[in-house]
From TrEMBL:
This is Ribosome assembly protein METTL17, mitochondrial. SUPFAM superfamilies: S-adenosyl-L-methionine-dependent methyltransferases (SSF53335). Pfam families: Rsm22 (PF09243). Keywords: 4Fe-4S, Iron, Iron-sulfur, Metal-binding, Mitochondrion, S-adenosyl-L-methionine, Transit peptide. Belongs to the methyltransferase superfamily. Rsm22 family. It is found in: Mitochondrion matrix. One of its GO terms (cellular component) is mitochondrial small ribosomal subunit. It comes from the Eukaryota. Associates with the mitochondrial ribosome (mitoribosome). It comes from Chelydra serpentina (Snapping turtle). GO terms for biological process: ribosomal small subunit biogenesis; translation. InterPro entries: Mt_RNA_Methyltransferase, Ribosomal_Rsm22-like, SAM-dependent_MTases_sf.
Amino acid sequence: MAAPAAARCVRKFWGPRGGPCPLRAFTTIIPRVSQVDNSPDFLGNVPHRRHPGVLHLRSVRLPAKLVKAAQLLVEQSTVHGLKDQVVALTNYLWSRKRPLEASELQMRGQQLEQQLREKVQPRTADASSPLTDAEEEKLQRRVLNRLRKTTYHWEALRYTDELSLVYMAARLDGGFAAVSRAFHEIQKRVPAFAPRTLLDFGSGTGSVSWAAHGAWGQTLQEYLCVDSSAPMLALAQRLLQGGSESPQAPLFPGVYFRQFLPVSPKVKFDLVVSAFSLNELPSLAERRETIRTLWRKTDGFLVLVENGTKEGHQMLMEAREIVLGCPHHLPCPRLNPERPLPCNYLQAYHPLPFRWNPELKEELFSFLILRRGPGAGEEPWPRITQAVLGRAQHVHCHLCCADGSLQHTVITARRHGRDLYRCARLSHWGDRLPVTMPPGDAVPGE
């Protein structure tokens, strides 16, 4: 969450930071132990394992009808070596990077040329003689060869019927789990939010619509799935029809498929989502334009989900900067130039019941939630950024705080009270600890 001054930007930021929550009564002040609220009614009738900062989900299960439809599609397919293709595509997508900009490639080439030129032609007090034409040509070849070996070669993925099926088998379940976790965050912190319209950019297999239907199916009336790949849209439509090849009534109504975003600027949606799609855009300029377009079409929440890698996290922070454009918002403390670390989360889920899948898997992902509206009156509770380490009579928590700092806190029952200690011990990676930390302070006890 941003610093208090960021409220003037009238936008909220969730994900790698904390965010708004009306449960002010649960706030605990630390590190001044005398101010810790350890009264018997600290949590009321709420058990410690359900304290107001709990946001994690237990293992996610795909809807039974979706699982059945996916199994039917695989049974009907003629794809050979599906397991090997699933593993290869999964590894490729996880290691995928953003396309390198032409200006950055040129700068790398110039730096490399200078380094190689200094080795070939060492500098002395006297002016060096110029290289011969043959030596210059050899130097340029070495520069090009080195660039080819050290530069990531981004290529656009062309989803054919076969590749779309492989993608479904590889990513339908994990993508559904990650998006479900992001939607759960909104449900927990803004329970009154009841969207009527959804826009899913880069919809792929349609997992976002399935997750949104599970969360807000009673109020959602329109699901607009936008994907540039016609085979992928056809596969998503078949999943919605239960896997049948012949036209059937959809398993839930109101879903529409398009290859392009709505042109009219007046068309807006209560919930706009882009999940694992930003990396498929060929340039920074196109990512910027797409993010701006998605934000213009957002009437409520914009949800962005990417891989839990450095690339995924950096793309989300890039999108955050594009949307917010506010100097009062603090940079993510994990984007340290010396040692950048991704801000990510784990979500357990039951994968599709294919023979190569275990009973339970975990999805590592990063997400960003932006909401239109004022940011005043929000509790700056810190976010737990790593697994909580419970030790004998004390708990280690790594927190991302509202002042833009990362804190390693040690909480004990003796110094901080039994309630806070139990809340911390029963918290998980991604939860928020219901405490107020003065700027620059951390929980004592180390």
